[in-house]
Design brief:
The complex is a heterodimer.
Chain A: E1 4-9, E2 11-13, E3 36-38, H1 40-55, E4 60-66, H2 72-81, E5 85-89, H3 99-113, E6 118-122, H4 133-141, E7 145-156, E8 159-166, E9 169-176, E10 179-183, H5 195-201, E11 205-206, H6 207-212, H7 217-221, E12 228-232, H8 234-237, E13 252-258, E14 267-270, H9 273-285
Parallel strand pairs in A: 1-4, 1-6, 4-5, 5-12, 6-10, 7-10, 11-12
Antiparallel strand pairs in A: 2-3, 7-8, 8-9
Helix pairs in contact in A: 2-5, 3-4
Chain B: E1 4-8, E2 10-11, E3 14-15, H1 17-33, E4 37-43, H2 49-53, E5 60-65, H3 74-88, E6 92-96, H4 101-112, E7 116-120, E8 122-129, E9 136-147, E10 152-157, E11 164-168, E12 185-188, H5 191-194, E13 203-209, E14 221-225, H6 235-245, E15 248-251, H7 253-257, E16 278-282, H8 288-291, E17 299-304, E18 317-320, H9 323-338
Parallel strand pairs in B: 1-4, 1-6, 4-5, 5-12, 6-11, 7-11, 14-15, 14-16, 16-17, 17-18
Antiparallel strand pairs in B: 2-3, 8-9, 9-10
The chains are: A alpha/beta, B alpha/beta.
Chain lengths: ~290, ~350
Amino acid sequence: MGLKILVLAKQVPDTRNVGQDAMKSDGTVNRAALPAIFNPEDLNALEQALQLKDKFPGTTVEIITMGPTRAAEIIREAMYRGADGGYLITDRAFAGSDTLATSYTISLAVKKIKEFDLILAGRQAIDGDTAQVGPQVAEKVGIPQITYAEEIKGIENNVITVKRRLERGIEVVKCPLPVLVTVHSSATECRSRNTKLTMKYKRAKTLTELQEAGMDYEGFYKTRPYLTIKEWTADDLNPDPNCLGLTGSPTKVKNIENVVLTAKETVRLTADDKDIDFLMRELIANHTIG
Amino acid sequence: MNNVFVYIEIEEGAIADVSLELLTKGKKLAQQLGKKLEAIAIGYKLDGIEKQLFPYGVDVVHVADDKRLAPYTTLPHNKIVCEIFKNEKPEIALFGATSVGRDLAPRICSTTGSGLTADCTSLEIGDHTDPKTKTEYKNLLYQIRPAFGGNIIATIINPETRPQIATVREGVMKQEIFDAKYTGVVKPIDVKNLLSKEDFVVQVIEREIEKSKLNLKAAPIIVAGGYGVGSKENFKLLHDLAEVLGGEVAASRAAVDSGFAEHERQVGQTGVTVRPKLYIACGISGAVQHTAGMAESALVISINNDPNAPINTIADYTIIGDLNEVLPKMIKYYKQNTK
């Protein structure tokens, strides 16, 4: 029994390693200074998909990502690790999308793909930490959701069993397919690149990338369809323009403030014995401790 | 109509702290708007639950009581809340940023087409003029949260869509009784007619929820470690100091992500918010997501080998040095001076 699995993934700025130059002097984000990475929990989701592929021969795993042209990088990265291909959903019309407009756009792509058994996604992306796109895509596609998954325990008779990692414990739930599952960082880490697959897919490109690189589609790529990363724009999805991008986003950013920590009067100490002795005496004297 | 709603989270019959905190905040917002505060309680065996809610100034409690509604599953809770929203047209709706609230709120927002802001650290009422159209909006909910690696604080608004929905972590808002004698009305929901078999396709077959042994919010002294602590082994030093001082050990997200400490010890925007008498920050640089969860501590000591760590600016004492050296000395001089 082969499954058809879609994995929702996002290329994100690596906000975990924000350096001094992450913000410009005008208070806007200097995206160029932040490396773009595969959202970590989306890799956890990919691994769950690949484990199912190992278990059920004939399973296909395809990535859906929405973003600029360069986001095709993460589709390739997923292919190096075992995914079969992917869809880059890209258009200027999507710019400024909040989670609702993003979910709407992705749900159109899912509906266009039409046939699938399982959608996997990371629980949340590190650039916003909202955890909203997964449940919202599930609602728009009209399927149930299972969030905070730590492990897909099995699929039998078209029913999936999932272990969820909650704040204070675990829960095991089952649900008939199709379903959307969001995967938690406590799930198994994603396998690394496979050398053979990396060789096979290193020249996988979207049409835009081919054009930009001036590469010949007719000659090389036409005979190797597995090297073409599918690319869909707004026109391919037949959307309601009022639901896209900034227009389709109910949340608006009213203002953004740079974080300035207001300095307190600080007593500066060293690791010297007399400094620590002084500190502990003072804390005891003012009844903070003791 | 146009009231402030709070979704009440119920775990094995007990109301979650975060829901009571949201009621406290919700009451203030409702008063500012001249509106009522309404609560939604969904679960099983909820008889008398309103008595626990009215003292927070709740005017209406919507109760959906059915064996199939506990433990929580997404679809039936979603349908009930959406039905209430359709009839009552809330102005504002608040959910805990818990594994329930963060599962439910986005599904609801997708159904109703509302905007949602996750993990708010502050909620205020304010006006807005659209910079392009010059349209004026009165009394919007300002949903304030750190964003983008904590380098910015963003104020998010939903000018057009209602309800304005936000999630808030446990401990961020204070919990206060509004009036112990306050009473409101109970509105039962006709669950049997509202829900169908398809709403119960997800079945919980096993569940192990521990009552949290750890109560960081109540700890008077917190010894917190960040990425700079370096390892799980080094965290033992923090435990030693916490034990001697009668405190608890907490951690920054970076330390939790690196596996140095358990998730339930995480302080900050995506963890717990604490207000202890003393907060000792060890090897914590002080990103705003972390300081959002501890800035109201009465006294802050930062131990860091980086004299320029941002946390030093909000600390009352900074000790520049190696914590492997500093922490044992703190224990030593504490013992010596309390003899």
